[in-house]
Write a structure and sequence with these properties.
about 375 residues, alpha/beta, Rossmann fold, 2 domains, 6-stranded mixed β-sheet, two-stranded antiparallel sheet, about 15% strand
């Protein structure tokens, strides 16, 4: 498995950033990747590409560029997976679904009646409520029109930011990436743990340590291509955490319902199949992770959408067992995300009894 800091200029990567669009980013990535494979003798391998957030743009463009080469020695792409991806405008992925999202998780926002009424009134007057109700349906009614407020920074219709500013007054530790977070304010050794940077006195970011930078040889200091990528791959997976507010799941589903691939527009049925995560045999406190029915999923015409409960924006961080199961599907080791079976790397099955239970056998 390879983690890549890109585009040029990101993190510790060196060079002059000169890419002006995702096509240039992809071309530069292919040059790097070819050199990497040649250097370490890794040619003629199946390629699986994954990413999160803005990688919702990067991953499809990189996959598209690789597929366009028809060069399986270096670029034999098998499948892609993108988590909580940026794939559309802020209006679609934030503003339009915001009111319904607050309603769905009302206890985690704790707004009073007057502000809740304001949310509903604004969503209605800006056209968000009607747009969501009319177009987030299965199958889609046809090509979606432009969002009712294409410029999401318009003050009178910037509902997403109104909600965020209000919730900070109630819960100053609110995390846009995982909305169940409350005070005290958390910090992360990797940096950027939540809505804003926070580093307590005496703490140090891991990758700012000189010894770490020396160890890794670091310097001391979407939509236009996604349909064709889906059509040329065995599997394309879009995963979304239920507790993510920075990019809301219904916004991603709106994007999907406006996308045409393999001869039809959008999903024809809603994602209602159960997403099952097996129990693992090692019940050690250091490896505890959730299991059982962990959300919903659907697969149509080569595209899989999986909605992961109990997870925010960073699914591998908040729901590692769910992410691991999704990787098994990405690699083609299981037939579907609804399959009730053990982890392929843990064949003894649920609670070590070799079974395919949907709950541990010692749970009554």
């Amino acid at each position: 498995m390879v983690w890549v800091e890109q585009p040029v200029g990101t993190g510790f990567s060196q060079g002059k950033p000169d890419a002006t669009d995702e096509t240039m980013v992809a071309a530069q990535f292919l040059g790097f990747f070819k050199n990497f494979l040649d250097t370490f003798g890794l040619t003629n391998r199946k390629i699986f590409i994954t990413g999160e957030s803005y990688a919702g743009y990067y991953v499809p463009y990189i996959a598209d560029a690789m597929l366009n080469t028809n060069n399986t020695k270096y670029y034999d792409v098998e499948a892609i997976m993108i988590y909580d991806p940026s794939t559309s405008t802020g209006a679609v992925q934030e503003q339009i679904p915001a009111a319904a999202y607050v309603d769905a998780y009302a206890p985690l926002f704790s707004f009073n009646k007057s502000f809740t009424d304001y949310i509903h009134t604004t969503a209605a007057s800006c056209g968000y409520t009607d747009f969501l109700n009319k177009y987030l349906v299965y199958p889609p009614p046809g090509p979606l029109p432009s969002p009712p407020t294409s410029n999401e920074t318009t003050d009178t219709c910037d509902l997403w930011d109104d909600i965020l500013n209000a919730v900070f007054l109630i819960n100053p530790c609110f995390d846009i990436y995982e909305i169940t977070t409350t005070c005290p304010l958390l910090w992360d050794v990797l940096g950027f743990p939540g809505s804003f940077d926070y580093l307590p006195t005496g703490a140090e970011i891991y990758f700012n340590r000189t010894d770490v930078q020396q160890a890794i040889n670091a310097p001391l200091i979407g939509l236009s291509v996604l349909p064709s990528v889906i059509e040329r791959l065995n599997r394309t997976i879009i995963g979304h955490g239920a507790l993510d507010y920075i990019l809301i799941a219904n916004g991603t589903l709106l994007m999907i319902q406006n996308m045409t691939w393999n001869g039809a527009q959008g999903f024809q049925s809603p994602p209602t199949d159960e997403f099952y995560v097996p129990y693992h045999t090692l019940q050690d406190p250091a490896t505890l992770a959730g299991a059982g029915v962990f959300g919903t999923t659907t697969t149509e015409r080569g595209l899989t959408f999986v909605y992961t409960e109990l997870s925010g924006h960073m699914i591998p961080q908040y729901a590692p067992s769910a992410a691991y199961r999704q990787v098994e599907f990405l690699l083609g080791r299981i037939g579907s995300l609804s399959e009730v079976s053990s982890f392929t790397t843990d064949p003894d099955g649920a609670n070590g009894n070799g079974g395919n239970a949907t709950m541990r056998v010692d749970v009554v």
